[in-house]
């Protein structure tokens, strides 16, 4: 299948994914009653408007508070598109208020509103908040695919053929300078940066857990900027973009963060386009022009319907003056934005954010795509349209992209451009080999199974343990104990009450072995990871009710593996949940998720599961062989509490 056919196939798959996503939204929001949506957590109702104010970039912000279902889990988070509606009887409501969530803390939500003013009905009470469907991302992905498909005899076509076709990657030997590396970089990091600087078209940095991928990428970007003056830096998520923007800024680089301020962390807000416009030397003049425009316009609109020729002409002149003032303000803002774009060194945005109108027509010599192992292929093409060279960084052996359509995932959408490229051009890829996170025994199985046994634990971590009386790895086997899994009839999520009880008892025992005072003093952190949401909820209840855990509860995170990607904890406890007579492991079969879970641990990894069920899968059978060979294995019957 040539590159054009591959892209046409991907186009059909992203349409399938859009349909699945929209259907999910329809089922969860549009077709459900207000009461059902509130129960599901896709709606907050009722809420009260606490205040409204002008925030960064003169954007209108509202702060709302839910007054019911205070402990109910919900789907709202930073960056989500939402709509505010009124349920007040007899109040005419022309349309809802749309916006983006800045953040949610406890039962308070802060939203940046799309628009300059609020309708009167918003002050009448009976308000609610719904999540919205993200149409824009699909539109931009489909547009990018069409552009790449029709590209001929240009740089986009060349990159397309290198990544998907039969063209070979080139090394630009003519203008590569002698490289001087920072002393913080190890040899594998230096090799990766050399590949980045040398390539004429594409390069791939494969960063296994804890190997300093972000450090490597930041150094590579800084060295590229020395040659090219400006680069485009992207990633699939706002969190990943913000991390890079902050790290680049710490290097003294002039960073411009493109994107909705509501989707940006507080630390990165000062780098946003809105904030940088407000800091510009010509901003005072811009603000004055807008103020005068509003004054003239509001005066003109105060004229009543019954006025004569003279008043009509005066109103007409004032509206014309307001229009001219608006044109002047728009031109000045255009100048300020261009000035900011010309003088910044790193433009940072999400993959979809690289289609921002501010960047229209702008080209870059190099575009960087971080977390490329989690990036949908159609989204990756959006920044590629703007670049001569593309540098991918990620790990396709950790979490894949989130896809709602099983059909699309199985038909190829789950395979990223990073995976395709690294397979096609292994000579343009460099794997980082020294990891700075895990004890070598925690690292070993993952290294052998996923990374060709090429990972090396740095001396600073290879023997680091929680305490002298602790081993780095434990596997507690629940086979034969009757810990049967169950399934929630409504959500279909699975849970295992006996295993959850064991998880909490094991954690309590560990805390007591270390000592609460020592745990506090050292500030040890813990993550409890389990694959199913129902099990997460059950363990949270048990942990919250534990008197032993209460003093250090804030140091314990409990969630599915997705919430832990890119993070680390001193201790990780994994509960596998699955325990059945058929040997079914469900989506534990996606072993990349288990790779992520295991490699979050720095000093201690505890795994709890049923060997009789898990052992039916070759990966878990190998894991069981490993823990037995290393004497990390114990039956639950050997545990004492």
Description:
- InterPro entries: AAA+_ATPase, Coronavir_polyprotein_1ab, DNA2/NAM7-like_C, DNA2/NAM7_AAA_11, P-loop_NTPase, SF1_C_Upf1.
- Pfam families: AAA_11, AAA_12.
- This is IGHMBP2 family helicase.
- Belongs to the DNA2/NAM7 helicase family.
- One of its GO terms (molecular function) is ATP binding.
- By secondary structure, this protein is α/β, with parallel strands linked by helices.
- The protein has 4 domains: 33-133, Elongation Factor Tu (Ef-tu), domain 3, CATH 2.40.30.270; 137-167 and 184-254 and 345-432, Rossmann fold; 279-342; 436-638, Rossmann fold (3-Layer(aba) Sandwich).
- 40% of the residues lie in helices and 19% in strands.
- It has 20 helices and 23 strands.
- The strands form 5 sheets. A 7-stranded parallel sheet has the order 9-10-8-11-12-7-13, sandwiched between helices. The chain has a 6-stranded antiparallel beta barrel with strand order 1-2-5-4-3-6. A 6-stranded parallel sheet has the order 20-19-21-22-16-23.
- Helix 1 packs antiparallel against helix 12 (406-413).
- The longest helix has 35 residues, at 309-343.
- The radius of gyration is 28 Å and the shape is globular.
- The model has no long low-confidence stretch (mean pLDDT 92).
- Name the beta content range: 15-25%
- What is the tally of beta strands? 23
How far the N terminus sits from the C terminus, by CA atoms, comes to 60 Å
Tell me about the biggest sheet? 7 strands, parallel
Mean pLDDT: 92
Query: Which class best fits the helix and strand makeup?
Result: alpha/beta
Uncertain segments of ≥5 residues (pLDDT<50)?
none
What's the CATH H-level homologous superfamily of the largest domain?
Answer: P-loop containing nucleotide triphosphate hydrolases
Oligomer type:
single chain
- How many helices? 20
- CATH top-level class of the largest domain: Alpha Beta
Count of individual domains? 4
Strand order of the largest sheet: 9-10-8-11-12-7-13
**Shape by Cα distribution:** globular
Kindly identify the CATH topology of the largest domain.
Answer: Rossmann fold
């Amino acid at each position: 299948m040539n590159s054009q056919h591959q892209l046409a196939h991907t186009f059909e798959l992203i349409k399938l994914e859009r349909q699945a996503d929209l259907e999910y939204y329809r089922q969860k929001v549009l077709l459900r009653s207000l009461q059902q949506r509130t129960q599901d957590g896709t709606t907050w109702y009722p809420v009260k408007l606490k205040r409204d104010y002008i925030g960064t970039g003169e954007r209108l912000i509202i702060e709302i508070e839910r007054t019911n279902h205070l402990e109910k889990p919900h789907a709202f988070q930073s960056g989500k598109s939402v709509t505010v509606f009124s349920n007040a009887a007899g109040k005419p409501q022309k349309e809802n208020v749309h916006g983006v969530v800045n953040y949610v803390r406890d039962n308070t939500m802060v939203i940046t509103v799309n628009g300059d003013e609020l309708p009167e009905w918003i002050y009448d009470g009976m308000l609610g908040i719904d999540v919205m469907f993200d149409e824009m991302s699909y539109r931009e992905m489909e547009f990018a695919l069409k552009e790449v498909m029709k590209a001929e005899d240009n740089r986009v076509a060349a990159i397309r053929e290198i990544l998907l076709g039969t063209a070979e990657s080139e090394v630009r030997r003519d203008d590569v300078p002698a490289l001087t590396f920072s002393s913080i970089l190890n040899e594998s990091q230096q090799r990766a940066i050399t590949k980045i600087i040398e390539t004429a078209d594409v390069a791939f940095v494969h960063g296994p857990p804890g190997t300093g991928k972000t450090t490597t990428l930041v150094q590579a970007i800084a060295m590229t900027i020395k040659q090219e003056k400006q680069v485009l830096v992207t990633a699939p998520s706002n969190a990943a973009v913000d991390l890079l923007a902050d790290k680049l800024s710490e290097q003294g680089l002039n960073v411009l963060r493109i994107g909705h301020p509501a989707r940006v962390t507080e630390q990165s807000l000062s780098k946003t386009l809105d904030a940088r416009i407000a800091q510009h030397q010509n901003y005072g003049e811009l603000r004055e022009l807008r103020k005068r425009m509003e004054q003239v316009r509001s005066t003109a609109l105060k004229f009543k319907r019954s006025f004569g020729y003279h008043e009509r002409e005066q109103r007409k002149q004032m509206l014309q003056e307001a229009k001219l003032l608006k044109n002047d303000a728009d031109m000045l803002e255009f100048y300020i934005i261009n000035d900011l774009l010309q003088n910044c060194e790193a433009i940072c945005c999400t993959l979809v954010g690289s289609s921002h109108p501010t960047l229209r027509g702008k080209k870059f010599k190099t575009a960087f795509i971080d977390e490329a192992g989690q990036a949908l292929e159609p989204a990756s093409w959006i920044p590629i349209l703007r670049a001569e060279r593309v540098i991918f960084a990620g790990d396709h052996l950790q979490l894949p992209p989130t896809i709602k359509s099983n059909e699309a995932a199985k038909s190829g959408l789950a395979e990223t451009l990073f995976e395709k490229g690294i397979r096609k051009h292994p000579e343009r890829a460099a794997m980082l080999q020294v990891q700075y996170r895990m004890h070598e025994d925690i690292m070993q199985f993952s290294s052998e199974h996923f990374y060709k046994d090429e990972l090396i634990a740095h001396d600073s971590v290879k023997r680091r343990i929680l305490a002298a009386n602790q081993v780095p790895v434990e596997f507690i086997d629940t086979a034969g104990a009757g810990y049967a899994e169950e399934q929630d009839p409504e959500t279909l999520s699975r849970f295992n009450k006996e295993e959850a009880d064991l998880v909490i008892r094991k954690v309590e025992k560990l805390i007591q072995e270390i000592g609460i005072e020592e745990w506090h003093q050292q500030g040890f952190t813990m993550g409890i990871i389990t694959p199913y949401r129902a099990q997460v909820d059950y363990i949270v209840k048990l942990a919250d009710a534990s008197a032993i855990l209460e003093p250090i509860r804030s140091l314990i995170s409990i969630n599915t593996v997705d919430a832990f990607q890119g993070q680390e904890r001193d201790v990780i406890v994994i509960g596998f949940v699955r325990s059945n007579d058929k040997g079914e492991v469900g989506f534990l079969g996606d072993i990349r998720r288990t790779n992520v879970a295991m490699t979050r641990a720095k000093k201690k990894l505890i795994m709890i599961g049923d060997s009789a069920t898990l052992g039916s899968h070759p990966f878990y059978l190998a894991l069981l062989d490993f823990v037995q060979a290393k004497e990390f294995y114990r039956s639950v019957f050997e545990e004492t509490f």
